Amino acid sequence: MDKIKIIGGNQLNGKIYISGAKNAALPLVCASLLTEEELILKNVPQLSDITFLNKLLEFMGNKITKNVYEENGYEAQSFTYKANEIKELVAPYDFVRKMRASYYVLGPLLARFRHVEFSLPGGCAIGARPIDIHLSSLEQMGANIEIKNGYVVADAPNGLKGAHIIFSKASVGATCNILMAATLANGITKIENAAKEPEITDLIDLLNKMGAKIQGRGTSILTIEGVQSLKGAQHHVLADRIEAGSYAIAAAITKGRIELINARAEHLQQPLRVLEKMGVGVEVTENSIIVDGTNKTIIGEDVYTDYYPGFPTDLQAQFMALMTVAEGASLVTESIWENRFMHVPELCRMGANINIHGHASAIVRGVKKLSGAPVMATDLRASFALILAGLIADGETIVNRVYHLDRGYEKLEEKLKAVGANVERIKAED
């Protein structure tokens, strides 16, 4: 497996272009299964998750073409999808085990083709993430669902029908899946306690372009009037707020100044507020966010993760890295996932002072410095937390299992080097 080597101590200064959002692009890609016509997605990030999902869709018969173009002076990629000859309605284990979000094919295939077989998913080890909300909601819409030999087998011989669905929690994945399924259902579907993340609104925007009738954009109550068919469309994937937040912390922790081109401050209100409370300068421009840690004293601050618009769980690990060298103590409370402190032992290997209390909270007491060490990435966001720690640690840090990073951070080394980081990828030996 590849590794990332970092020599810490460099202040980061410059500009970083924020890529398209992984968590938006994945359901957008699967929306191509809802129509026979061409769907063109621009600003799709170059990530292993996208590659795996495209391979699954090609296996099913989706014809995909790639195009590279320039956007704001940076290289970007678009994909054209045409799902007019889908012949395979099974998502095999070999595909799904590599990328949990493959489950986004469930709603579209069941809605359009009335049958799907889907291997139960894997994914990052950050706690149990069952798809029971997805399945129970589809059953309310008239689907017959069985679990056989590790596969979900779902049928809707008479098509899906509208239903009044109340989610037990505001699940992003379930909201995306049921939204897509409902667009082609018979009648009206009402979803209560829907997730409100920007990635959800991005999906709604695309679906409405395709001819769907969805109301309630940006709220927890969504109403979808089913239509007979959807048409093709062109859509631009929104900027990745988690990538933007991660690089914002890179500026703060190295006491540098980074302009995050294409970042949208309205999607990062809570994280930016926490940065300002910690003593970091934040300036919002028309098309960027400037984060300035130059000559700033970083002070501890408490964080409580919550569903959007609350503080994102996907930035918890990165902020904890910053807290390790802040003055005073910080309390981190994780309310979304029960096993998302797996980065703590690795940060402690580098000299951090962190105490975990139960499964939900951790006290971080700032230290004067961290020391480079070999560390192990446990999940996608924890991986970037270790990168951040390595950027300021004395000596050399080796981050192992960086395939996690390749799932969610486009051109990581290239972007960090461009702003002054001493970082390189060590390729795995053949």
Question: How do you describe this structure in short?
Answer:
The protein is an alpha/beta fold and 430 residues long. The chain has 14 helices and 24 strands.
Describe this structure in words.
The protein is α/β, with parallel strands linked by helices and 430 residues long. The protein has 14 helices and 24 strands. The protein has helices at 22-30, 48-60, 93-96, 106-113, 132-140, 172-183, 198-209, 241-253, 269-277, 316-323, 344-349, 380-392, 403-408, 412-418, and strands at residues 3-7, 13-17, 38-42, 63-71, 74-82, 90-91, 115-119, 144-148, 151-155, 164-166, 188-192, 213-215, 221-225, 233-236, 257-261, 281-284, 288-292, 303-304, 329-333, 353-357, 361-365, 374-376, 396-400, 422-426. The protein has a four-stranded mixed beta sheet with strand order 22-23-1-24. A four-stranded mixed beta sheet has the order 2-15-17-16. α4 (106-113) runs parallel beside α6 and α8 packs parallel to α10. The longest helix is centred in the N-terminal third of the chain and has 13 residues, at 48-60. Residues 123-129 have low confidence and may be disordered.
Number of helices: 14
- Given the C-alpha coordinates, what overall shape results? globular
Number of strands: 24
Multimeric state of these chains? single chain
Mean pLDDT rating: 95
Contiguous runs where pLDDT drops below 50 for at least 5 residues: 123-129
The description of the largest β-sheet is: 4 strands, mixed
The secondary-structure class comes to alpha/beta
Strand content: 25-35%
Q: What's the end-to-end separation, in Å?
A: 9 Å
Helix content: 25-40%
Radius of gyration: 22 Å
Strand order of the largest sheet: 22-23-1-24
